């Protein structure tokens, strides 16, 4: 698909909070896309959201939107257990798909989705928006320069507290609920991106709460990477709000106090080298807009995707291993 001054015509599958609060405003801010339609099982709701964002079309079913020739790409923020079905159906209908994280419930599902994208000749991407913020390329430059020495450990945390919201979809294990899927995926994804490698083994301890559907409400783990470098992380939906990443080398440390959700503001991070700390303030950038523009560039054939469906399959392999380790209380090897 060539650009020829066209914009990518987006369809929004469902009226989730992340769509209304972040992604749809980002499409409006981008120069590469336009919201053409909104679909939900409730036509009144989809009309309301479509009107809110000036979208010309509202659909009372997902099937109707898939059949519409005016939709080029779909954003899918549905509950995790519905990602595979609707992404594959969309791709088989010739639509490009940006799917919320985690892309699926396990690695085999993610591979099915990646294979479907190849077969249909369309783009598929997992919506980890944070990776598209320009500060991450700068951080990788600092590490590659040797300024903080040899990497020794990465430490990450992402927690919040919704334990009283017993109707939340994150508490449905059959829907892909739990803290590892919801927020633990962020420090794990970041470590894989920073190191440019896949883990060798994982060991995770978790608090599975019967009061909360039996999902992992809290988890802490060790992710072993090649070269004797490790990620230590904790994540949870039953703790005080915390969000951080620390990259520790032999000569220095990079610390990100707002590691995963910073956008236009609060994206600064610290670099400490032999006791001297400086703060770097990156250019203001909405990471959702950057993500959408990168996706559109791939659709228009201007450049390859920065993060491929195969990367998402590898990420799901790690998340799946983390849950296995937590449930079976053992170290899980990821070596072939």
Automatic annotation (TrEMBL):
Cleaved signal peptide residues: none
Keywords attached to this entry: Oxidoreductase
The GFO/IDH/MocA-like oxidoreductase domain, residue ranges: 137-254
Residues passing through the membrane, by range: none
InterPro entries assigned to the protein according to its UniProt record, in alphabetical order: Gfo/Idh/MocA-like_OxRdtase_N (IPR000683), Gfo/Idh/MocA_domain (IPR050984), GFO_IDH_MocA-like_dom (IPR055170), NAD(P)-bd_dom_sf (IPR036291)
Key word Signal present: no
Domain of life: Bacteria
Name of the protein described by the UniProt record: Gfo/Idh/MocA family protein
Natural source organism: Paenibacillus puldeungensis
């Amino acid at each position: 698909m060539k650009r020829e001054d066209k914009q990518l015509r987006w369809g929004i599958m469902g009226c989730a909070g992340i769509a209304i609060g972040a992604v749809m405003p980002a499409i409006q801010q981008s120069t590469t896309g336009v919201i053409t339609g909104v679909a939900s099982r409730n036509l009144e709701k989809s009309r309301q959201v479509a009107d809110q964002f000036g979208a010309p079309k509202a659909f009372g079913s997902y099937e109707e939107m898939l059949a519409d020739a005016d939709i080029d790409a779909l954003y899918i923020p549905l509950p995790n257990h519905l990602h595979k079905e609707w992404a594959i159906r969309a791709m088989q209908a010739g639509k490009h798909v940006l799917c919320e994280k985690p892309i699926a419930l396990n690695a085999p599902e993610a591979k099915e989705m990646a294979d479907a994208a190849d077969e249909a000749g369309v783009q598929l991407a997992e919506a980890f928006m944070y990776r598209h913020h320009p500060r991450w390329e700068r951080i990788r430059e600092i590490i590659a320069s040797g300024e903080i020495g040899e990497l020794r450990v990465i430490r990450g945390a992402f927690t919040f507290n919704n334990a009283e919201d017993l109707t939340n979809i994150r508490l449905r294990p059959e829907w892909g609920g739990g803290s590892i899927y919801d927020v633990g995926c962020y420090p794990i994804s970041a470590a894989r991106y920073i190191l440019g490698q896949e883990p060798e083994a994982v060991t995770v301890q978790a608090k599975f709460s019967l009061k909360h559907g039996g999902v992992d409400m809290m988890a802490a783990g060790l992710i072993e990477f090649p070269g004797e470098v490790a990620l230590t992380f904790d994540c949870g939906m039953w703790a005080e709000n915390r969000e951080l990443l620390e990259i520790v080398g032999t000569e220095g440390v990079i610390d990100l106090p707002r590691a995963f959700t910073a956008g236009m503001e609060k994206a600064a991070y610290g670099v400490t080298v032999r006791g001297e700390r400086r703060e770097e303030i990156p250019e203001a950038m909405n990471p959702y807009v950057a993500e959408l523009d990168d996706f559109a560039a791939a659709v228009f054939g201007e450049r390859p995707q920065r993060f491929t469906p195969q990367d998402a399959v590898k990420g799901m392999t790690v998340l799946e291993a983390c849950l296995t380790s937590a449930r079976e209380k053992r170290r899980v090897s990821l070596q072939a």
